[in-house]
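Project outcomes to date are best conveyed with an example. Our students and postdoctoral researchers have been running inverse folding experiments weekly, and each run begins with a structure described purely in tokens. The record below, which covers 430 residues, was selected by the lab manager from last quarter's runs and is presented without edits.
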């Protein structure tokens, strides 16, 4: 999302790796960056000049989960290179904080984030294109490469791909391979549980999670150009297809299959507690579902039986590494992401604490025997649409999500969706 405030949140440094020589020395914390002792966990103010950067040769920013997943691998890479690496946690508003810090010269060398940031980051001059060899590109899935491509240039190195799918509690329904959304609704109601389908909506709506239902109903957010890139001038919200989709969403609301009482805080637990036979969410729920000890399945979201040719197309989100345009150590940053691109052991190491389907084909093959559900999510993502990374997308989420929530609660589908489209157009046009 675009930056809208200049306040910075504190950042916690979680690791600093040392050169091989430093690892066996007793250097004090005041030693030079290439030979100093590991920095203790500390709170760092990114608004201060060269925050964190003066203590390490390479600084990486990420949210907590991603930071923890890359910490050890980054440390090992730094030791091999003879440099220090600091991985720092930005708990909230990572993207806007990065944009502002980079502009001020206080930012990191690398930031780990979602691919749909690309449009905004390029627009703000915050990142630079990255080099991925032809051999490395061959090992990435098509959807991953498409996601990190903007204006025909590669702006990030992908490492994980995610999309939503349908989880099924086999103990609560015999419909374990539903062929339509209508079947999910009817089987969900027949289960006699508190909810027919657990999907996060909330009072503000959630257009991301509802995207497969929206597209199955005939809606789309932005059309595509001949090369597959999104066309900001072709807004689907408010158009005929979106209104038909809104009518389907209204029907699901009346059937109790969609409700604003289920949100991000209780969607997964509604399913794992046995209060819904179906759950529509992403691979991040796998750990909780496995912990619940249920007999479950994960399948692709089907389309509507009542709509000829209906296909549910969720969004594919790609996690990736960006090189900051104003980082103090761009050379180290470029070397790091090149190694991440050509060596899938980085992504494999991150999976231990950040369970997401990998973007690299060799890892996907490994998962087919060790974690078939994770591999299945990668298959689902292959037929999904990459999240639009164009700056205009920032104008869509709020109005569309709210419109969908209102429709679920009984608002008129036609007028509500039309109004949402008009609001989005005004926002895009400024």
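After processing, the design step wrote out the following sequence:
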């Amino acid at each position: 999302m675009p930056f809208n405030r200049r306040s910075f949140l504190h950042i916690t440094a979680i690791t600093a790796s040392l050169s091989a020589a430093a690892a066996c020395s007793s250097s004090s914390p005041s030693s030079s960056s290439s030979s100093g002792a590991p920095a203790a966990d500390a709170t760092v103010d990114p608004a201060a000049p060269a925050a964190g950067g003066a203590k390490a040769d390479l600084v990486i920013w990420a949210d907590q989960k991603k930071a923890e997943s890359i910490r050890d691998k980054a440390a090992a890479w730094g030791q091999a290179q003879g440099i220090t690496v600091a991985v720092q946690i930005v708990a909230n508003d990572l993207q806007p904080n990065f944009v502002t810090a980079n502009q001020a010269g206080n930012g990191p060398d690398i930031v780990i984030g979602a691919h749909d940031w690309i449009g905004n980051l390029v627009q703000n001059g915050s990142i630079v294109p990255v080099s991925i060899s032809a051999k490395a590109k061959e090992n990435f899935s098509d959807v991953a490469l498409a996601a990190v491509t903007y204006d025909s240039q590669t702006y990030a190195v992908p490492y994980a791909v995610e999309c939503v799918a349908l989880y099924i509690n086999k103990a609560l329904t015999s419909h374990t391979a539903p062929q339509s959304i209508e079947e999910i609704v009817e089987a969900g109601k027949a289960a006699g549980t508190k909810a027919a389908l657990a999907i996060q909506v909330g009072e503000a709506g959630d257009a991301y999670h509802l995207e497969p239902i929206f597209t199955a109903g005939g809606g789309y957010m932005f059309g595509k150009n001949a090369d597959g890139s999104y066309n900001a001038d072709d807004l689907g919200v408010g158009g005929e297809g979106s209104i038909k989709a809104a009518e389907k969403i209204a029907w699901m609301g009346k059937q109790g299959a969609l409700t604003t009482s289920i949100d991000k805080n209780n969607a997964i637990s509604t399913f794992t507690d046995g209060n819904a036979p179906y759950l529509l969410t992403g691979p991040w729920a796998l750990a909780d579902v496995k912990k619940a000890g249920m007999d479950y399945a994960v399948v692709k979201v089907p389309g509507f039986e009542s709509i000829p040719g209906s296909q549910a197309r969720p969004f594919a989100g790609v996690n990736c590494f960006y090189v900051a345009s104003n980082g103090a150590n761009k050379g180290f940053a470029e070397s790091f992401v090149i190694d991440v691109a050509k060596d899938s052991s980085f992504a494999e190491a991150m999976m231990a604490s950040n369970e997401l389907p990998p973007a690299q084909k060799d890892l996907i093959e490994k998962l087919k025997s060790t974690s078939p559900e994770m591999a299945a999510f990668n298959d689902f993502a292959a037929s999904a649409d990459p999240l639009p990374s164009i700056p205009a997308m920032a104008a869509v989420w709020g109005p569309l999500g709210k419109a969908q929530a209102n429709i679920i609660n009984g608002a008129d589908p036609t007028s509500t969706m039309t109004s949402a489209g008009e609001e989005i157009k005004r926002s895009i046009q400024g």
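The two ends are 16 Å apart (CA to CA). Confidence is low (pLDDT under 50) at residues 1-45, 47-53. The training component of this project remains on track.
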